[in-house]
Write the structure tokens for this entry.
Amino acid sequence: MKDNVSVLFSEEQIARRVAEVGQEVAKGLSGRDVCVLGVMKGSLVFMSDLIRRIPLDLTVHLVRVTSSREQSAGRVQTEIVFSTAVPLEGQDVLLIDDIVDTGITLSYLLAHIHELGPRSVKVCALIDKPEARKIDVHPDWTAFPVHEPLADRFLVGYGLDWMERYRGLPYIGTIPRPARSGPPRE
Ligand code: IMP
Ligand code: MG
């Protein structure tokens, strides 16, 4: 299974960068009680490492987003499901996402979160692929920006999957990009 994966960011690189991002987030949110909202399932590994590197009082919640796309037909459908009734009103929310690609999922999620009346919302992403953006939305912090031509490879590992596989790899790797339409992605 791992044979066709090329390592992009090693365990050591990830650990170093996550520690840096944790400090940056703590600086940006200092004095706040942070309500962490992790987007399942892709951000689970990143979130579990990152929250241990943010020296602030925080609560941890999960949200589930399923996006199914028929991009070739121009039809975009994103389904959002909150895994718990998270009380976000008046909260300083830190949304932790795995990959911001077209931005469709993140903008959809942010619109729903804002409806719940939080005091502030910041976004921390593991991976940002800025050149793939279709909607103008940007994370406040990013562990690893990935630019062309690498953005055209499919990233797996460290929580990221292809068809539910590869999430347990301790590093982030790439596989040749599979067809873009397919089963729902999380
Ligand atoms: P967006 O709505 O196009 O920004 O898609 C974001 C979501 O697509 C991410 O949260 C991932 O679940 C998935 N995704 C996009 N690119 C990749 C990738 O290279 N590897 C794994 N998942 C990806
Ligand atoms: Mg995702």
